[in-house]
Design a protein that fits this description.
Helices cover 54% and strands 10% of the residues. It is an alpha/beta fold and 504 residues long. The protein folds into 4 domains: 3-212, 3-Layer(aba) Sandwich (Rossmann fold); 214-297; 323-403, no CATH class; 413-503. The strands form 4 sheets. A 5-stranded parallel β-sheet has the order 3-4-7-1-8, covered by helices on one side. A hairpin with a 2-residue loop joins β5 and β6. The longest helix has 38 residues, at 413-450. The protein is elongated, with a radius of gyration of 36 Å. It starts with a helix and ends with a helix. The structure holds zinc ion. Zinc ion is lined by residues 329, 331-332, 368, 372, 375.
């Protein structure tokens, strides 16, 4: 068998199904993958969501496969599922069933109302699902079963003793009502029951791909993601047994083998969203966790962002010298006071201007002066005489005389050289990252398109998530721009406040 043939077969089946089953891409993908991996599928959802029909049609894609369909009730007997007792055997004083046409001879089975399974059939059912064996009297027979599709409207209650049965279903889908109007109309007015899948899967090929997948290597980054997910789920009290994890990794191998990949790559991890949840409410959280992890890694701009932020802060700290005395803007204070008095508020009615109009460091004071060059200031905390206010220049002059304080509006030569060097270095790192991100995005898109198991919706979401990483580079570029202005000072104030200055 050529793997590419199987891949094409799957693509064709998916296409055929998606024209008939709208909004069921994830379920179709998952069912086919479950079939190829020999796993069981649970379709959970309200009546009338075409669960049975979907399972039935998936079963029809197997060429020459035996199909067993049964609706379980609380009163179902072993005869109905495993076959009637053989009278001939009884005559010989032996106990055995005529299993032909029943679950023990099926390649695919669909069990409706699966959680109605009662204790008379549960043990044999578990053995069939788990070990692919059926104990028929004295004989232990091999069961050719690939997958059981279980359909149910609800999950079993905790005390019903059905946990083991529930655990056997690796793939779990919550099937909802059709959301989009046009799809709903199609469903109502067209006979989707008439759909007969024309592309078929061959049993030999299915067994062969399982064999091929068995020893496929798993990429180190996939191992890291799986380990991380295990930890995170444990922390969120979502328990996934080790046995399940083993099966999950096997499914990833089969998915990769069908894709024709030589190892399990990161994009395949997207499939985990359908095999990890325990109750449907966890589904979205888990999906988000997985998509985040699939997108994460690669170029990480986080460190660069921190470095740029640090540099900006250092420069600000350097420029931001403490004033020897507090300064408050007289003009702004008077205006503020007028407004609040007008509003009969007592907030500023007294003695002290609000904090926003008081300056205790050079940078804020300079910024205000650049913005409003004609404002005048009061020194110290005595606001009793508003007439004693002074211009910016005379405040500076007074500070110089009284305290020997010089305004430092630019960096020292040594600092400046150091910061400029750091700035150049960060700018180069940013440009390198930008190129990296572009190349990664191209590669990511290619990988996603090649992976037939990733649904269109997931592909779109992953690409959007990835692109949002680019907004980080915009933010970094903005910081760098700000730093450049600070370094080019004293223009920094003119540039930043030019517009506001003109208005004033
Ligand atoms: Zn002012």
């Amino acid at each position: 068998m050529k793997v590419s043939d199987l891949k094409n077969t799957i693509i064709n089946i998916k296409q055929e199904f998606s024209t008939y089953f709208k909004e069921r891409d994830a379920e179709i993908n998952g069912s086919l993958l479950a079939l190829l991996s020999g796993e069981h599928v649970l379709l959970l959802g309200p009546p009338g969501t075409a669960k049975t029909l979907l399972a039935n049609k998936i079963c029809e894609t197997i060429e020459g496969g035996n199909f067993f369909h049964y609706l379980l009730t609380r009163f179902s007997t072993p005869e109905e599922v495993f076959g009637p007792l053989s009278l001939k055997a009884l005559e010989r004083d032996e106990f055995s069933r005529r299993v032909e046409g029943y679950l023990p001879t099926a390649h695919i089975a669909l069990l409706d109302e699966i959680f109605k399974a009662n204790s008379s059939i549960l043990n044999s059912l578990l053995t069939v699902l788990n070990e692919r064996k059926y104990h028929n009297g004295k004989e232990v027979m091999d069961v050719p079963l690939f997958s059981v599709f279980g359909a149910s409207n609800e999950l079993p209650e905790e005390d019903e003793g059905l946990e083991a049965l529930y655990d056997r279903f690796l793939f779990r889908f919550r099937v909802d009502y059709i959301q989009h109007e046009e799809n709903l109309e199609r469903l109502i007015f067209e006979n989707t029951e008439d759909f007969v899948p024309s592309t078929k899967l061959n049993i030999e090929e299915m067994r062969e791909i399982q064999e091929r997948a068995r020893n496929l290597p798993v990429d180190p980054e996939v191992r890291t993601i799986v380990k991380g997910l295990r930890r995170e789920l444990k922390n969120s009290n979502i328990f996934v047994s080790d046995r399940r994890w083993k099966k999950i990794v096997n499914v990833l191998r089969v998915a990769s083998a069908v894709n024709g990949h030589s190892s399990v790559n990161r994009m395949t991890v997207v499939l985990l969203q359908h095999v990890l949840w325990d109750v449907p409410e966890q589904k979205e959280t888990i999906r988000k966790l997985i998509l985040d992890r699939v997108v994460s890694g690669g170029t990480d701009t986080g460190k660069l962002k921190l470095d740029v932020f640090d540099l900006k802060n250092s420069i600000y700290r350097c420029l931001q010298n403490e004033l020897p005395d507090l300064v408050a803007c007289n003009k702004c204070y008077a205006e503020e006071k007028k407004t609040t008095d007008g509003m009969r508020s007592s907030r500023f009615s007294g003695i002290k201007p609000p904090k926003s109009l008081t300056f205790d460091n050079t940078l804020d004071f300079l910024k205000h002066h650049t913005e409003f060059p004609n404002h005048t200031y009061i020194i110290g905390l005595d606001y009793s005489n508003l007439n004693s206010s002074q211009s910016f220049e005379s405040v500076a002059e007074l500070f110089r005389r009284k305290y020997g304080f010089e305004f430092k509006i630019s960096l020292d030569y040594g600092d400046k050289k150091l910061y400029e060097k750091e700035y150049k270095h960060l700018e180069e790192r940013l440009n390198y990252f930008k190129r990296q991100i572009q190349e990664e995005e191209k590669a990511l898109e290619k990988t996603l398109r090649e992976n037939i198991w990733v649904s269109e919706q997931d592909t779109q979401e992953i690409l959007i998530k990835y692109r949002s990483k680019n907004t980080d580079t915009y933010e970094i570029a903005n910081y760098l721009n700000e730093i450049r202005l600070l370094l080019e000072k004293p223009k920094v104030f003119d540039v930043s406040f030019e517009k506001a200055g003109e208005v004033a």
